[in-house]
Amino acid sequence: MKKTLLTAISFSLFSVLLTVTLSGQSDVHSIRYEVDITGPGKTIREGELKLGGTGSRNESIKVNNFYFLLNDKPYIPVTGEFHFSRYPNKYWEESIRKMKAGGINIIATYVFWNIHEEVEGRFDWQGDKNLRGFIKLCADNNIRVIVRIGPFCHGEIRNGGLPEWLFARTFNVRSNDPEYLSYVERLYSEIGKQLQGYYFKEGGPVIGIQLENEYQHSASPWALTYPGQPSDWTAADRDRQVIKEGVSVSNTFNSYSQFGNEHMRVLKALAEKAGMLVPIYTVTGWGNAAVIENETIPVTSSYPYPTWVPSSSLSAFYLYTDLQKKPDYSPVRYKSEDYPYFPAEIGAGMISNYSRRPTIPAESLDALINRFLGSGSNGVGYYMYHGGATPKGDKYFFSDEAYAYPKINYDYQAPIGEYGELSPSFHRLKLIHFFLNSFGDRLAPMSLYLPVTNAGITPSDTTTLRYSVRANNGSGFIFMENFQDHLNMTDRKGISIQIKTKNGDIVIPESGSLDLKRNENLILPFNFDLGGVKLISATAQILTKTGSTENPCFIFFVQDGSKALFSISKTNVASITVIAGRRESDKSRWLVNCPVNSEMKIRKKSGGEIRILVIEKSLALKSWLIKVKGEARIAFSDAILLEGKEGYEFFKSGQNSFNIRIYPGIVSTPQITGGTLTEVSEKDHLMSDYKIVIPPVKFEIKTEQFGEKKLQLIFPQDIPKELNDLYIKINYHGDTGMAFIDGSLVDDHFYYGQPWIIGLKKFYDLSPSRKMLIYFRPMYKNAAYLVDLKKEEIPDFSGIDSFLKVYGIETIPEYHGLMKF
Prior knowledge:
The protein is mostly beta strands. It has four domains: about 1-40 and about 445-620, Beta-galactosidase, domain 2 (beta-galactosidase, domain 2, 3-layer Sandwich), CATH 2.102.20; about 75-440, Glycosidases (TIM Barrel), CATH 3.20.20.80; about 630-650 and about 655-695, no CATH class; about 700-820, Jelly Rolls. The protein is built from eight helices and 52 strands. The strands form eleven sheets. Strands 9-10-11-12-13-14-15-16 form an eight-stranded parallel barrel. An eight-stranded antiparallel beta sheet has the order 19-20-21-25-26-29-32-31, covered by helices on one side. Strands 37, 38, 40, 45, 48 and 52 form a six-stranded antiparallel beta sheet that branches. Strand 12, helix 5 (about 255-275) and strand 13 (about 280-285) form a beta-alpha-beta unit. The protein is globular and about 80 Å long. Mean pLDDT is about 95; it is low at about 1-30.
């Protein structure tokens, strides 16, 4: 069966125009870009991929050559990696709920073979290794799962997850040797038992299985090596010639590639034999890795800040391109246009190793996702989305020490950190996730249109506008971003884009021009259906939708300091009301200037009312999607809001008071436990506004200094009931820090210019004495990682060879309580 989507041979022109804004002011610096979307389009082919399936609850998953479908509706997966074995099981559910609140709809997790079978023949699925318990919590919280079953995983784990004792066998690992495969079959059988009853076909959350990882592309060094010794890779002997260190381009021809593809088929057959029958099977697609054509989704990746290369350089990951035609890290071993483009390993952070320690800017991540979506991607997946701590085995540390990674710390600078704390990237990414979860069914079928100017852009180009268009039947989105890794960008001003459609040209903005600030990005709709009314264009980004089908509420946001201009078709519009805004019209449309923190109401001729809320991005970053008596609302707060069985839990770090605003406003006053709630009066009554105060907690962390390098912390005997956690923030300049409890290493930190954050609640069971010893090592002036630090983060080494200074320790309480509606 074939479907044809609208596309075109696109072109782009630009010219300097004199325009007049809605307020009557002239703009003499507007640059007009043009793109044509009138030509023939993307052909959708269904039924070619041997993927998909149905569940016991009448759910279905399908895959065509361009996008996924969930219950026959186009669907964009938003996947976040979270390793259950790297996090305390008592806090798994809280983290799952945080991921869901951030807009993640699928959790991906590794099953590290060596962690579960450290001793041959003795599998351990208890405590933090309880895969089945983790999957059950995902089911309880209605979030889907992709299980990455290995046998090789990488994941900065010792030997890439392969048990040490495999090294002492006569066979080649990661080969078709029958004895090796017998061990893999045993592993898969054990995993299959853990997942039984939780597969999608059984009504469970497990929709996908990843087979192996980076097969015939990458490997890990065996841990049994010595300083200066060449790496002994965890790969079959036949593949050593092509093995790469980390994710990268591979142009090396592998004469054994067919053996690799066959090995992947054997692994899939073993997984199915173990009961792992799922709608989606994935494999690594980048860097000429082995695949199973037509039976697996070759997932892709991007790491703008890799630590496995000797120096930083500008990447092409912030340039729009047709990713289906040429995936990142090409060449690849499959026909890329036969599969949806699904980047499952977008570097949502990066772990430091001893010689490389980049800081990942939060602004880099939503710009990166904008680029992927604006390059034809119909999936989003992060590695890592949630950090953690690599466990210690009975015999050794499970971290990949041969790669010089931290022994414990796996914070990864992820959106959710090692101790469950939220980073700024969490909030920036959720703005796009909310959009995808609300409108991904519209975006997924849309074809890609790249302007001619795009072909000439290089990563070092700071002058040419970076933008693309995706559209279907004349409706679509403009994507633009103004970020480049390892480069300072400047504000782009006076932007105007003209889109040629079969029904006439659309100019965005219709009046005046718009600006794109440095390090920012935008997704702007055109010919967008607002519940029965056509939004011709907008200079505001759509965030999500609340309200009912008859009376929907659409939330838009603009860059701080910007204005929102809407062009709305008069068809089916009885009236438009805007608070403190301006309107003008002609016979076919309304042009409305809607101020920020303001609301527009559109009364439809067919009945019902549409509400549009416009806010600044700084407020959007505080947004949380909630339900009040079954109806969708959006809340704004500095606190974290997590949906639970009894209501919404709130968490606030550092302060015992905060506000929660709810749109649309609600009638009944919420009830809370753990504090007091007071309604804040608001003149325009757009939102319900409440102030919550939790009784302040007094606590003291004592410090004792032992020489220059050692500091002992003595923390409270119990965490007060008003607190969810108690964080310590260590500000220091040095090389590394290590935290010990009763002589055992419990955390470590590679200094990379940022403070070291430790959450204490996970250690209360380990420390009856409530003491923690911190041991620091000084920074040396010839350290290789200094290349990654900012100038102000490097001390003055004049006359000295090393430097260590602890500036102080801050204590940050995390208050919590419960809100019920």
